[in-house]
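Fold these two proteins, one after the other.
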Amino acid sequence: MAETLTNRVAASGLITLKLEEYWPTAGFATFDLKDYLFMGLILKEKDFRAAVKEHDFSQYAGKTLLVFCSADAIIPNWAYMLVAAAAAPFAADIYQGTEEAYLRQHFRGVIQQLNVADFADKRVVIKGCGDRAVPASAYLDVTKHLQPHVKSLMFGEPCSTVPVFKKPRKK
């Protein structure tokens, strides 16, 4: 008589949350204000306005435009505003900062939108490996967001997890 194989992982009732699936859909493009500094130190309004007017912002169509200055210079706030105004008709999103900072903010927002009722009193595995590196801050944020609601929280793959949290049994 043949034995019936049982997929114990599937039968365990674990919910696997793959943060990688929430990766931003738009690609990234950068706009470094360093390239517009006079003598590498200051931003001249008249020159910068002319440069922004001449710049082809259509190249950022459908992308997240990351606006920052990689030089150690004081950038006036109006400079970011001028870039945003020029890029807005084209870019999918405009962010002041680096890709790393953008991803931290993006994942924090995604995690805050997770419906905790979907995870209430469930055993949840936060998948840790994937094709894209999810920021470490996202793992911290998802733990903070889900911990009050889940039965247990684990990291890794359903077949090999690292226990993170287990709700104490009521006496």
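Now the second one:
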Amino acid sequence: MIRHQYRCSVRWSDMDVYGHVNNSVFLTYLEEARGDMLGRQASTAGVGTFAAGCVSAKHEIEYKAPLEWREATVAVEVWVTGLRAASFSLAYEVKDERTLYARAASTMVPYDLESRCPRRLTEPERAYLTRFLTQH
């Protein structure tokens, strides 16, 4: 199993009144990392269908430590924890070399934008996601 790693900048506008990244911004960091994995990297691997339609069905975030503004990026690691016929589960860690800032999980659903309906995973999508699948 491999983890997709995305380097995310911490923007000044991400800060809240307490001087750390607002809890809701973590969802944006996850979205950027997921978009990189299912968009750019999947397309490079010949699987462009995620970019054509994939929606979030559920998110959970566990905040572990405050993340303050910094010039250095943070890593958002993404991997697959489950594959079903018409959905898949992702796990994430937002961290740097010393600190784990958050753990998260998402349930994603492939989606046909034209018919506005969920759809099943294609074989190429399943094969791509399997590269990131955790082995229990």
